[in-house]
TrEMBL record:
Function: Catalyzes two reactions in de novo purine nucleotide biosynthesis. Catalyzes the breakdown of 5-aminoimidazole- (N-succinylocarboxamide) ribotide (SAICAR or 2-[5-amino-1-(5-phospho-beta-D-ribosyl)imidazole-4-carboxamido]succinate) to 5-aminoimidazole-4-carboxamide ribotide (AICAR or 5-amino-1-(5-phospho-beta-D-ribosyl)imidazole-4-carboxamide) and fumarate, and of adenylosuccinate (ADS or N(6)-(1,2-dicarboxyethyl)-AMP) to adenosine monophosphate (AMP) and fumarate.
SUPFAM superfamilies: L-aspartase-like (SSF48557)
Pathway the protein takes part in: Purine metabolism; AMP biosynthesis via de novo pathway; AMP from IMP: step 2/2; Purine metabolism; IMP biosynthesis via de novo pathway; 5-amino-1-(5-phospho-D-ribosyl)imidazole-4-carboxamide from 5-amino-1-(5-phospho-D-ribosyl)imidazole-4-carboxylate: step 2/2
Species: Parendozoicomonas haliclonae
Protein's UniProt keywords contain Lyase: yes
Protein name listed in UniProt: Adenylosuccinate lyase
Family: Belongs to the lyase 1 family. Adenylosuccinate lyase subfamily.
Alphabetical UniProt keywords: Lyase, Purine biosynthesis
């Protein structure tokens, strides 16, 4: 059976393939091979520029252009050629080396440099930098949609900044807020994670078989190989890790995935809240012609986008949690357990991207139901017990909390009952008038201000 969207085992490449296509050039087998080719070529060029490696003179403009083109014009067909070589070598990185040598033989100048391809490198020197390049590109791809999610929620905050809403703590009626302020809470939390996402350093190393530049120094003992490695790694847009074993220890990958997981966890919280707000009627959903909510109940407009988002965020976090817990652990100077795990770097990102797109679709269909919000507020005069008992404290009235507790707890409180209670209080008339002018819809503190200044 040929691989297609219908026959793919994972919905990442099947049902949701259109949502994850931007990640394919980055995290696929092709993406990994492409990154390896880039690292190998750039390392060869770095060596050629070093004045103390006299056996490898600086490349001419023509030779440099030929090498650059190998990287910039790398194709799926090139990746397939490398896979064909791998069937003989049974070693994926060595296959890249042989592919490059085959390309270079056609040029007289480059043919003299063949044995400087993969010079002093262990496979992990190439792999860890390739993973860094993949995560660098993947982070930017993912972040673009993460920002859209944050901005969409921030837009809800602004749009509904002044729309009063009954709060619920422990599921019970509580001091009112505004719908916009509750959206602002989420947007602010997401924005913090986006900032932290940018701050994660993507690390790399190119220091040989066990991290000591053994082969480098045996061949060119006069070269400052650590300085050369730092310069090279930073030229790739990565940060230099000076202390490693054979492998870059992957701590930064755990840090990166942990930030994405926190963003996702906040979004799960949002998905569940919106689901609940839809359930109680605070939000309506725009209907789309032709869509079906239930196969048997024609009236249904289900919050499927937020449910889809929540489910895929859970999958994303499960994958990234395992990777964050596993990758920093390697026996002695290395074992191979990280290799098979690292091939799944894009899976957590892909499930995240699916979830973000679903959340965005759901947000685009939301319509606040001001009438329903107002009904709940008008039926919750018990929440006015808080301002009343607080003002009573100001004027020295004894046991204000206890008096309001006895008056309201477990009872249905009407507007008239609350106004009557305030009228009998021993406090200045001005204070009474102020309390009597308040309603559950107006008792929102500075919620609107907070929502607008996000």
């Amino acid at each position: 059976m040929e691989l297609s969207a219908l026959t793919a085992i994972s919905p990442v490449d099947g049902r949701y393939g259109s949502k994850t296509s931007a990640l394919r050039p980055v995290f696929s087998e092709y993406g990994l091979i492409r990154a390896r080719v880039e690292v190998e070529v750039r390392w060869l060029q770095q060596l050629s520029r070093h004045p103390q490696i006299t056996e490898l003179p600086a490349f001419s403009a023509e030779a440099t252009s030929l090498l650059d083109n190998i990287v910039s014009e790398f194709s799926v067909e090139d990746a397939e050629a490398i896979k064909a070589i791998e069937r003989t070598t049974n070693h994926d990185v060595k296959a890249v080396e042989y592919f490059l040598k085959g390309k270079m033989k056609a040029n007289e100048e480059l043919a003299k440099a063949l044995e400087f391809v993969h010079f002093a490198c262990t496979s992990e020197d190439i792999n860890n930098l390739s993973h860094g390049l993949m995560l660098k590109e993947g982070r930017e791809t993912l972040k673009a949609t993460m920002v859209k999610v944050e901005q969409a929620i921030a837009a809800l905050a602004t749009e509904h900044a002044a729309l009063p809403m009954l709060s619920r703590t422990h599921g019970q009626t509580a001091s009112p807020t505004t719908l916009g302020k509750e959206m602002a809470n989420v947007a602010y939390r997401l924005k913090r994670q986006l900032k932290q996402l940018d701050e994660v350093e993507l690390l790399g190393k190119i220091n040989g078989a066990v991290g000591n530049y053994n082969a480098h120094l045996a061949t060119y003992p006069e070269i400052d190989w650590e300085a050369n490695a730092k310069e090279f790694i930073e030229s790739l847009g990565l940060s230099f890790n000076p202390y490693t074993t054979q492998i870059e220890p992957h701590d930064y990958i755990a840090e990166l995935f942990d930030v994405v997981r926190r963003f996702n966890t906040i979004l799960i919280d949002f998905d569940r809240d919106i689901w609940s707000y839809i359930s109680v009627g605070y939000f309506k959903q725009k209907t789309i012609p032709g869509e079906v909510g239930s196969s048997t109940m024609p009236h249904k407009v289900n919050p499927i986008d937020f449910e889809n988002s929540e489910g895929n965020l859970g999958l994303a976090n499960a994958v990234m949690e395992h990777m964050a817990n596993k990758l920093p652990i390697s026996r002695w100077q290395r074992d191979l357990t990280d290799s098979t795990v690292l091939r799944n770097m894009g899976v957590g990102f892909a499930y995240s991207l699916i979830a973000y797109e679903s959340a965005l679709k759901g947000i685009s269909k939301l319509e606040a139901n001001a009438q329903r919000l107002g009904e709940d507020l008008n039926n919750a005069w018990e929440v006015m017990a808080e301002p009343v008992q607080t003002v009573m404290r100001r004027f020295g009235i004894e046991e204000p909390y206890e008096k309001l507790k006895a008056f309201t707890r477990g009872k249905v409180i009407t507007r008239d009952a609350m106004l009557e209670f305030v009228d009998q209080l021993d406090m200045p008339q001005e204070a009474k008038d102020s309390l009597k002018a308040m309603t559950p819809a107006s008792y929102v503190g500075n919620a609107e201000e907070q929502a607008r200044k996000l």
